[in-house]
What we know:
By secondary structure, the protein is of the alpha/beta class. The protein has helices at about 1-20, 35-45, 60-65, 80-90, 120-130, 155-165, 180-185, 215-220, 245-250, 255-260; strands spanning about 20-30, 50-55, 75, 95-105, 105-110, 145-150, 175, 190-195, 205, 225-235, 265. It is globular, with a radius of gyration of 22 Å.
Amino acid sequence: MRKAIVSAVAVALAMSTAVRAETLRIEGSTTVGPIADAFAEYFKGVYPNLEITVNKNGSGNGATALIEGRCDIAAMSRFMEPQEFSKAVANKVYPVAWTIAMDGVCVVVHPSNPVKTLTSAQVREIYMGKITNWSQVGGSQTPIVVISRDSSSGTYETFETLIMKKQPMAQGVEYVNANPQAQARVRTTPGAIGYVGLGFLEGVKAVPIDGIAPTRQTVANGTYPLSRPLFLFTNGFPKLGSIPFKFVTFYLTEKGQDLIEAKDFVPMTNY
């Protein structure tokens, strides 16, 4: 009898836990990914019954997932575009933006590359195929291997807008679909050039653009030419006190700021 009672209590507790379990689905930017991962890990520790997933597949895919109801939060390294807002509203989704950190799109080369600085125009001409050898910009006699993010990336769109000025890239450009891949490709290729978020500089050399290096200070004050905000988007304003609300406002807390700084991004707050 006692065993039956204990068993019944265990089943009831299990059912109660299952009922209380909550899910949070985050999808989007590989740049925002490290922040989302760090926030998710913290929230799992605070809320043991929370089932949280972070899918890093690009800002454009994050926007689409939010519009189609496949995620609760879209992580994006760019703002939603007008056509995305239109699709969202047509689907009765009303995106709300949360600016959680600042980032700099860093133009990176192999650590052995002697080039010390580049202008925006030089980078643009490299990606257009007009400059093809490092000797043309003060470097060694080495062919340039050009690495770019793919077009679903918010980092790509920032680079295309601020550097390319909507000019087409050369046919020989090699496209990769994530910051870690771009970083790894440049790190292992002496002649390569690429661009990554501020949190992906390990093993590569960030080149100053127009004489300004990407640092926490230059990104925070906007003097670095490729500074940009990072976003989380929700469908409407989350219910006050809910898990989604706590997650998208976590950047306002000291712990949230610490986690953002630990990932080498620049917090929006300054405690």
